[in-house]
């Protein structure tokens, strides 16, 4: 059995390298990814993902990746289960934890609207 994800997209947020009380480096980025198809209006749809990077990977990304960078991320899904004390209902949220980062430099026309949006900020 495997537990991993792979995403390619544009970094759409500024980010800060932080340090936990235990001394571990951590950073969170927002990655905007284009779907493979257009909607009914002929526009591409973009999904945004919050991804956490730890230790050496966080330090490397902080030094090399900036807002607007086209990157690929391979990582694992970390489920977090919570139980409502009143109803006993279980709910699950998924954290995306990066294990590998790849920097892409080639142009992709589908990513142009994201890059244009970032330039306006």
Structure description:
By secondary structure, the chain is α+β, with helices and mostly antiparallel strands. It has one domain (5-120): Beta Barrel (OB fold (Dihydrolipoamide Acetyltransferase, E2P)), CATH 2.40.50.140. It contains two helices and six strands; from the N terminus they run E-E-E-E-H-E-E-H. The protein has helices at residues 55-64, 112-120, and strands at 5-11, 18-19, 25-38, 44-54, 70-83, 90-104. It has a five-stranded mixed beta barrel. A hairpin with a 5-residue loop joins strand 2 (18-19) and strand 3 (25-38).
Any key phrases for this structure?
globular; OB fold (Dihydrolipoamide Acetyltransferase, E2P); 121 residues; 5-stranded mixed barrel; alpha+beta; 2 helices
Explain the layout of strands and helices:
Blueprint lengths: L4 E7 L6 E2 L5 E14 L5 E11 H10 L5 E14 L6 E15 L7 H9 L1
Parallel strand pairs: 4-6
Antiparallel strand pairs: 1-3, 1-5, 2-3, 3-4, 5-6
